[in-house]
């Protein structure tokens, strides 16, 4: 059983499989596999024709049992955009379940929400503290760099996957609505694949949304 991701950045090509495997292990859905992400430009996610073509390509991948669409909101409103994209994608995918996750504003906001768990790692300062509103600032990558040692810079292609393997998902879940959407999306995708999850999201993670 395989989830096929469609993502917008080179960093996500490496990081999203890491994230999905962490969620697989956390949920004990060990039969779930992750396909190599399909890379698309952001503009292709918000136009019906290119989005449908990306879904068609995903369906051609071997053992495509579910599809995850993940990209950054930037300045757009995820609540307005996601239902439209979900409708286009699910119509094209037919019976294959699809979930749309739009990180607000950027994937890296999830790191900003849990930066204490990254202290001393990939150049993050030992005294770095999380942003009080991690999904609010424009430029999460720059916010991360502000929390790095002098001379270090954040690179999606070299830092995103290792940070994804390490960041505190519980903190990100508590502080980022879009990460809560990511967690719910995982459950929505794996259940129709024959992996109904018990107590998902984990009860210990519970927050008011």
- Give the rounded overall mean pLDDT: 95
How many angstroms does the end-to-end distance come to?
Answer: 30 Å
CATH names the topology of the domain at 2-106 and 159-165 and 176-205 as: Rossmann fold
Number of helices: 9
Find the structural class using helix and strand composition: alpha/beta
In the CATH classification, which architecture of the domain at 2-106 and 159-165 and 176-205 applies?
Answer: 3-Layer(aba) Sandwich
Q: Regarding quaternary structure, how should these chains be classified?
A: single chain
N to C succession of SSEs:
EHEEHHEHEHHHHH
Identify the overall geometry: globular
Radius of gyration over C-alpha positions, nearest whole angstrom: 16 Å
- Strand fraction: 5-15%
Brief overview:
By secondary structure, the chain is of the alpha/beta class. 44% of the residues lie in helices and 12% in strands.
Structure in words:
The chain is globular, with a radius of gyration of 16 Å. The model has no long low-confidence stretch (mean pLDDT 95). By secondary structure, the protein is an alpha/beta fold. It has a domain at 2-106 and 159-165 and 176-205: Rossmann fold (3-Layer(aba) Sandwich), CATH 3.40.50. α3 (48-60) crosses α4. It is 44% helix and 12% strand. It has helices spanning 10-27, 42-45, 48-60, 78-93, 109-112, 140-145, 156-166, 169-175, 177-190; strands at residues 2-7, 33-34, 38-39, 64-72, 98-103.
Q: SSE layout and pairings?
A:
Elements: E1 2-7, H1 10-27, E2 33-34, E3 38-39, H2 42-45, H3 48-60, E4 64-72, H4 78-93, E5 98-103, H5 109-112, H6 140-145, H7 156-166, H8 169-175, H9 177-190
Parallel strand pairs: 1-2, 1-3, 1-4, 4-5
